[in-house]
Amino acid sequence: EVLLNKGITLARMFEQDSALEQYEMAIQIKPDLARAHYQRGRSLASLQRFLEAVGSYDQAINIDPSGAATHHYRGVALSFLNDYELAVAAYDLAIELRPDNPDSHFQRGWSLVSDRKFPEAIAAFSRAIYLKPGEPDSHYQLGRALAAIWQHSEAILAYDRVFGLEPEHARALFGKAYSLCRLAIYESKSH
């Protein structure tokens, strides 16, 4: 535990390489310490060594499959590896273990958008918003997913909710402008 705690402290100080050394020593002493594998994965992901991070998360899950955070961050690492289907499966396990975590719903939605599964993404972002309504990025991503399936009126409403939370959200401004243009083009063609 001392090595693990030292690693966590080093990681908080952005000393990921030194933190990794501590986690690896902790794992050598106690290979079945799931938290050490989990923290090792977090540090590896911080160093953008995502494939190795997934391996660490897998080891932690083999020891203790009940860690919602481990499944969540495994999904994050898989998303960075562009393996969205496995990322969604990881988020599903995280959500099964901790259904009230808006971050897992949000990340699940992001992976679904990346995999072009927009209706499922809309449901995931909607759930994230239900759990944490004050998060502007959830509303923004909902707007993006709605615009992707040509629901521009609804997308504009989502972008407007972003502005209520973060008035200068540049990406939402662009998204709203895009949806307004698409609506104008659609309306001009229908007359």
Summarize the SSE layout with pairings.
Blueprint: H1 2-12, H2 16-29, H3 34-46, H4 50-63, H5 68-80, H6 84-97, H7 102-114, H8 118-131, H9 136-148, H10 152-165, H11 170-190
Tell me what the structure shows:
By secondary structure, the protein is mainly alpha-helical. The chain is 81% helix and 0% strand. The chain is built from eleven helices and no strands. The N and C termini lie far apart (70 Å). The model has no long low-confidence stretch (mean pLDDT 92).
Strand content: under 5%
Shape estimate = elongated
Output the radius of gyration: 20 Å
Tell me the structural class.
mainly alpha
Distance between the termini: 70 Å
The pLDDT mean sits at 92
Number of strands: 0
Order of helices and strands: HHHHHHHHHHH
Low-confidence sequence ranges: none
The biggest beta sheet reads:
none
Can you count the helices? 11
Q: Any descriptors?
A:
191 residues, mainly alpha, 81% helix, 0% strand, elongated
Structure summary:
This protein has 191 residues and is an all-alpha fold.
